[in-house]
Design goal:
The chain has 79 residues and is α/β, with parallel strands linked by helices. It has helices at 11-19, 34-38, 55-59, and strands at 2-6, 26-31, 45-49, 66-69. 24% of the residues lie in helices and 25% in strands. Strands 3-2-1-4 form a four-stranded parallel beta sheet, with no helix packed on it. The protein is globular.
Length: 79
């Protein structure tokens, strides 16, 4: 089963990756953080750099049975 995960390198994404660490799943992960992606090592995961605001990034998911959107846009205003 092919599963897409947007935001796979974040806090929730890492938890989901651990739950889906099984060769019967083909995982496709998209996130913006190259540094965090380099820290993730999982045989059934293909990682892409991308942004949910960019439609071309989302096309990398291809045909998935399930897509999890765990991506977050963080903006912290400092007064």
């Amino acid at each position: 089963m092919r599963i897409g995960i947007l935001g796979h390198s974040g806090s929730l994404g890492k938890i989901l990756l651990n739950k889906l660490n099984n060769p019967k799943y083909e995982l496709i992960g998209i996130s913006r953080d190259e540094h965090k992606q380099n820290q993730i090592k999982q045989d059934n995961l293909t990682q892409y750099l991308g942004d949910i605001r960019d439609l071309n990034s989302l096309y990398r998911l291809g045909k998935c049975s399930i897509i999890f959107n765990l991506a977050a846009l963080k903006c912290i205003d400092i007064l």
